[in-house]
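Hi V.,

Quick status before I head out on leave. The structure for the redesign project is tokenized and pasted below; the design run finished overnight.
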């Protein structure tokens, strides 16, 4: 299960509206960084038949099969702190993160 906070859902909806197309958001992981895995986000125009599909605050969230094992239970938030703003992953599967916060291990 993947969930979005209300702030994250509003931000995704705003992005999709400004973009003028798209049916939702795809979350995934890629191999990179000093800890091994990094998050990836992309807007979805067409869903893949193998994607897991979740609905959170009326936003469709897609996750590929490989990534779901690393992301299951994740909550995606959107925060603004001073000049810093962006999506923040609250992933219960993370065992360690690199110092810069760009990658993680499970």
């Amino acid at each position: 299960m993947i969930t979005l906070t209300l702030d994250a859902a509003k931000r995704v909806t705003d992005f999709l509206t400004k973009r003028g197309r798209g049916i939702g958001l795809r979350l995934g992981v890629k191999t990179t960084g000093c800890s091994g895995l990094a998050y990836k986000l992309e807007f979805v125009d067409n869903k893949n038949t193998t994607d897991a599909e979740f609905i959170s605050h009326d936003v469709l969230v897609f996750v590929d099969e490989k990534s779901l094992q690393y992301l299951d239970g994740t909550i995606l938030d959107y925060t603004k702190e001073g000049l810093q703003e962006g999506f923040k992953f609250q992933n219960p599967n993370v065992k360690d993160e690199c110092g810069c916060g760009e990658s993680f291990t499970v």
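Above is the designed sequence. Residues 6-19 form the longest helix (14 residues).

G. will cover questions while I'm gone.

Best,
W.
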